[in-house]
Design brief:
The protein has about 180 residues and is α+β, with helices and mostly antiparallel strands. It has four helices and seven strands, in the order E-H-H-E-E-E-E-E-E-H-H. InterPro entries: CFP-6_PH.
């Protein structure tokens, strides 16, 4: 007997994160840095020189920071579901239900150019850095998908716009396409 999906559970329509090779590369570079700096510092600390203890107290937290930054960078995600949009950035996660979304648009700012921006009904603008044109290769997508001026809706933005329009059609059945 086939299992039917739960109608109350959100269905994922589109999701994007860093490409697997980008994750692997960032982890490999972080580990290489940890070994290149951490091993000599650790050996010097084990030697017992007092001056190296101070250097170790400075360097070891920096190495820990490299690991934390690598982990946080690899956790970024942009997900479009039947219930809304979830944006997981460096330091948090934002869930925006479709009822709160006024419009989905493309960011025109210099650093966020091409990114998906969700404008809520109360005027807040929530941008997903991961969807910006400068992240396209790291997502495993083509930069040309953003257009020659990097202001055209790319895959993440198109998926969000399409899902939002579908939500509006379900809420207002007589609306023309």
């Amino acid at each position: 007997m086939a299992h039917s999906p739960d109608p109350h559970r959100p269905q994922v329509l589109y999701t994007v994160s860093l490409a697997w090779w980008m994750r692997l590369l960032s982890i490999a570079l972080a580990l290489l840095l940890e070994l290149a700096i951490g091993v000599p510092v650790l050996l010097a600390l084990l030697d017992g020189d007092g001056r190296m203890m101070l250097a170790g107290l400075i360097v070891l937290p920096l190495l820990l920071a490299v690991l934390v930054i690598t982990l946080l960078a690899n956790l970024q995600r942009f997900t479009v579901t039947t219930t809304g949009i979830t944006i997981r950035g460096w330091l948090g996660r934002r869930r925006i239900p479709w009822d709160e979304v006024a419009v989905v648009e493309v960011d025109r700012s210099t650093l966020g150019r091409g990114a998906t921006v969700v404008v809520t009904r109360d005027g807040r603008r929530v941008r997903s850095e991961l969807t910006a044109a400068r992240y396209a290769l790291r997502r495993g997508e083509s930069v040309s998908d953003h257009g020659p001026d990097l202001l055209q809706p790319a895959r993440p933005t198109r998926a969000a716009i399409q899902a939002h329009q579908e939500h509006l059609r379900r809420r207002h059945p007589g609306t023309p396409r």
